[in-house]
Predict the structure.
Amino acid sequence: MTDRATYPVQLVQPDGRRVLDREHAASVSDVGPEQLRQLYEDMVVARRIDTEATALQRQGQLGLWPPLLGQEAAQIGSAHALRPDDYVFCSYREAAVAYARGVDLATITRLWRGASHSCWDPADINMTNPAIVVGAQGLHATGYAYAAHLEGAEIAVLTYFGDGATSQGDIAEALGFAASWSAPVVFFCQNNQWAISEPVRVQSQTPLVRRAYGYGIPGVQVDGNDALGVLAVTREAVARARSGEGPSFVEAITYRMGPHTTADDPTRYRASAELELWQRRDPIERMRRLLEREDLWDNDFERRVRTRSDEVGAAVRTATIEMPDPDPMDLFDHVYTAPHPLVEEERRNYAAYLEGARS
């Protein structure tokens, strides 16, 4: 991987025209009409999941939701570069990645509804649950990748995090360990320009990918709203990991069009003109324009995508609203793998409290 921090890799422009890039276009030369259509469909469905969950939170059905609006290409493009046996360590915003990995839609909002300690079973899709502690997943991914390397598993491990997480010590430690021990991990930074209310220019005076260079880790910047470009550079990074060449760093330049979470009001800290600029770079519209330019768009395909989107949106809504409330005592289950005296004491105290409240 070469230093492309000064100008991001781009294979499709916002107007849908392809870019001549012999180095990276070769990595997606096998992506034909159906795969392009699938990328588009998955991005549309991912956005529907996101907008449905946001609406559910506004209606009081979820306690919180971290929107991914605007980041569909970064997530779907990178997820399509992975094999089923690869492993993903996510942050809290990768619902699109979970969808691409085949998550059970009935589980995608469980944590955010407060009905469970987690959403899905990680073993089902080789992907961890949302990580609320910013940057912690970088260390988890590095340790898992190193263990897989020791066992001889020819897999790649990919960890997602945002631009704000690069200011956390956990990410710095993960980069250092991964470099020292050649762990087969891909650090995938979704630089969405805002770490809650602080712009990325406050986070760093240099492109974030260059932080990896200080550890001897190769990296690349990519237009994160270009699904094909993201797919190409992620394929290259996971190929390095699988072949034993060590870690890589991908910085996907994208934009968080919505709030940091549904508890946030982005109008308090960013200008509407900035949002309008990025809306013109919408990743879904870009892929649609590519399909139209290459005669891959027709009414049947449009209906197919709309139908799938409606089905998924309805499934998420129904599963969320019909989700049973947990028993209050379930709060103490699965905190540790073995019984813990402090947890058992808290269990007894809480049971006594509930009994007193009922009497």
